[in-house]
Amino acid sequence: MLKKKGILLKTFAFTSLLITVIVLISFGILFFILPDYYLYTKNKTLQKRADQLVSEIDGAKTEDELAQFISDFSLNNNATVMAFNSSDELVAHLSSPFVSMYSVSAEDSKRITVTLAKTNKDLTEDSTDGDLNHHAVISKSTILENPKSIALEGIPSGYVLKMRNSMDASHIEMTKKVNNTAIASITITSTLQPIDEAKSVMISLIPYLLLIDLLIALVAAYFYSKQLTKPIIHLSKTAAEMQSLRPNISCKINTNDELGELSDNINALYIKLRANIENVKREMEKVSLLEKSKTDFMRAASHELKTPITAINGMIEGMIDHVGRYQDKERYLKECKKLIDHLSKLVHEILKASKLDTTEYILHMEKIDLWEIIEKNLENNKILIEENKLKLFLDKKNLEAYIDQTIIENTLSNIISNAVKYTKPNGQIHIFTSETEEVRILSIENECEPIPIDDLEKLFEPFYTRNYSRNRHKYKNGTGLGLYIVKKNLETLNLPYKLENTKLGLKFNIYFQKAPQCNAPS
């Protein structure tokens, strides 16, 4: 829980600090850049408007138009325009101080600063766009006790120049060459507004502005941090829950960004992880059952081998020692031969059965006509069928399957041989097919005594025979591995099967899918 709060607190602190630093930097840039930027903007604007004025002067036809243009420019731009003729003499009635005159009394006109600007003498013929060298051309400043002494011709008596009562006003000044018969050049002077006061006001406001900005930054940073860390905290909480491997756990972040994509990836990874764990569990259970089956099989095999070996050993010892009935060596040598044949067959069946418990066998699937295999096995059992005078009933409907030929031949061989072996003399064997909507059924039914239901499943256990306890020579009845091998084969082919009692006796059913398919081991 501390970690979840930690990431929220860190994000909140970092965001607040970032916003505060940005505000401070913005104030600093504004404070230090404002004067230079103001001068740059003022100069650029004045230059542009001065070019427009020159264009208007060049196109003026009368002096009234000139006077109007210069007066409008002076008023709109807070600038003074001094007009000079080709002899570099001031044209007073076309200069803005004289165009915008006003009357003042002698008492109010004392100590007025008069600034006369003259054009640069270094004008050349190469000057273009009406431009002269753009630099200050102030020639001198004079403090006059009586402004009437500088009254020029054409200026009415009682009027003086309109000038600023400042000894050190900052200004921008430029001279422009014009093409007009009345004037040859103009000098424009624009006074800069003092910004020191604005800077002082800004400094006094900074603490209050910073406080407001800080409050805004804290509120904004809180909501931003909470919104940003909410999906991350959810991802962390969900990942912690996933450690328990419980089902139905998922990240619920439905956004069209990297966090939403990460949520989907975590969900997919968790589903795949659970599936892999379940597969591993099933494989472990399967391996455990396989190991148990192998152990049980080896115990049963050892027991089955021990019985005939003990019998053979006893008969041989009796014949060597000439004990009782064992003196008839010819008879008991034949008995030993039968036991050895049974042992050979038993060992062969054990080896065959042991291969079924391995996963190394690779199925070779192909299309097989099952009736061909059935007829082949009936031919192999022909002698026993004739000896017991068994009656065969075959219903040869089309029965083809996509299957491993070797395994299905071995399976049908065991089922048919058991049916022939355990059918009553003069009994019947029925082999037929039927079908449902999904499967075709191969049925092998023989006439025999019914088997108790509890014993039906035991028939598929290794070395199990029902008459073992009643028959001293069990080897005459088989090894007890036939149906065990059938069971393993059908499981390998993934084919369902069923053994059931009928009115006739016993019936074995095998179910084949109608659609051709490659049946994989289960």
Radius of gyration: 59 Å
Q: What name is given to the CATH topology of the largest domain? A: Heat Shock Protein 90
What is the second-level CATH architecture of the largest domain? 2-Layer Sandwich
Number of strands: 14
Average pLDDT, rounded to a whole number, is 75
Oligomer category: single chain
Structural domain count: 4
User: Secondary-structure element sequence?
Assistant: HHEHEEEEEEHHHEHHEEHEEHHEE
The largest pleated sheet is described as: 5 strands, mixed
Would you write up a description of this structure?
With 522 residues, the chain is an alpha+beta fold. It has helices spanning 2-59, 63-77, 96-99, 196-242, 258-321, 329-355, 370-380, 382-387, 405-422, 453-456, 482-492, and strands spanning 79-84, 102-103, 112-117, 138-144, 159-160, 171-177, 185-191, 365-369, 391-394, 400-404, 428-435, 439-447, 497-501, 505-513. The protein has a 5-stranded mixed β-sheet with strand order 9-11-12-14-13, with helices on one face. Strand 11 and strand 12 (439-447) form a beta hairpin. It is rod-shaped and about 165 Å long. The two termini are 47 Å apart. Residues 226-278 form the HAMP domain. It is an enzyme of class 2 (transferase). Residues 263-290 form a coiled coil.
What are its keywords?
522 residues; alpha+beta; five-stranded mixed β-sheet; three-stranded antiparallel β-sheet; 14 strands; 16% strand; disordered C terminus
